[in-house]
Design goal:
With 330 residues, the chain is an alpha/beta fold. Helices cover 48% and strands 17% of the residues. A hairpin with a 2-residue loop joins strand 7 and strand 8.
Length: 330
């Protein structure tokens, strides 16, 4: 195997930071260049990994799925690590991308508990999200409307299965081009997924028509997006701490949340926005994506003006008085 290049070193360093105790890790490998490169890097970093390929039934032909499976199995043999294959049935309803993602993680969790390696407990799932994925995610969220939480993009780690398993993303600092370079330099085969060419999916449209223009302006656009997401992650942590302080001056009652208006007035708008969003989540997820900045601005204006008014939001109402602010179901 070739000596690690700088991108490989970046992946290894991030993996060790995200998995300091070298816990056994399931590496999600689709067969694309990014996940193949991830598997190669993590094999250099740890002996405690296994590769899992999840076939999404209903999206691609059986021939394509079988070719993916065989490629990942060959890679596992080359790297001398265990291999597990799972099949996910994706329901053709609603948001197919979200449904595929949900079913994929379900199968990866099952792979963690699969008895293919007696005595080994897999507690990490590594996915191949990279800097280009981060750029695409940020662009889509900006277009749809977001706040500090959304500008964190794809987070480096998050708990699954009641926190028994953690998803980690060691490749967020490297670009898609780096993934291809790692594969080429180390004689690793990969496959291209033809569904990535389907512009009916928003992410594919952004990837094909928007990202190339941004990279013409600055070829490090993806890495800069990843840096911004890291900064916003820290920024959002500060905002969340302030929201927790505000919550000390209020209470939650069933499907509503009330807090002292004076407590809100102590903080800048960005913190009040986040408190309002968090209060809205208490009433459920319906209509959350329809809460826009104008709605938030109108409420904040009433709070700072010490007025009394009720604002109708999607599936919920916000009641402002000089003393309190309440967000509840409408």
């Amino acid at each position: 195997m070739a000596n690690p290049t700088q991108p490989i070193n970046d992946v290894i360093s991030r993996f060790r930071r995200l998995n300091p105790d070298n816990e056994p890790t399931v590496v999600a490998v689709s067969g694309g260049a990014d996940s193949v490169a991830l598997a190669f890097c993590l094999k250099l970093a740890s002996k405690n990994i296994k590769l899992t390929n999840v076939s999404h039934e209903g999206f691609r032909s059986e021939e394509e799925l079988d070719a993916d499976k065989c490629l990942v199995e060959r890679l596992a043999h080359k790297l001398e690590v265990p291999f597990t294959w799972r099949r996910a049935l994706v329901a053709k309803k609603g948001n197919n991308e979200a449904e595929a993602r949900r079913s994929r993680y379900e199968e990866l969790i099952i792979s963690c508990y699969h008895e293919d390696s007696p005595g080994i407990k897999y507690t990490k799932i590594a996915t191949a999200h990279h800097a280009d994925d981060q750029l695409e995610t940020l662009l889509m969220r900006i277009v749809r409307g977001t706040g500090t939480a959304g500008l964190r993009g794809v987070v480096e780690s998050r708990p699954l299965d009641n926190a028994a398993i953690e998803v980690i993303r060691p490749m967020l600092g490297v670009s898609k081009e780096h993934c291809y370079e790692i594969c080429k330099e180390n004689d690793l085969e990969w496959r291209e997924d033809e569904t990535n060419e389907d512009k009916d999916y928003t992410r594919n449209l952004v990837r094909a028509d928007v990202v190339p223009v941004l990279k013409q302006i600055n070829n490090r656009a993806a890495e800069h997006a990843s840096d911004l997401a890291c900064i916003m992650h820290s920024t959002h942590q500060l905002v969340e701490q302030a929201v927790c302080m505000i919550d000390c001056h209020g209470y939650t009652d069933g499907n509503s949340k009330t807090v002292s208006a004076d407590a809100l007035r102590l903080y800048p708008d960005v913190v009040v926005f986040e408190w309002l969003r968090s209060a809205a989540r208490v009433t459920g997820n319906v209509g959350l994506d329809k809460i826009n900045k104008k709605m938030l601005d109108d409420v904040v204006r009433a709070i700072r003006g010490r007025g009394s008014k009720t604002f109708e939001w999607p599936a919920r109402a916000v009641t402002v008085t000089p003393q309190t602010v309440t967000v509840g179901k409408s």
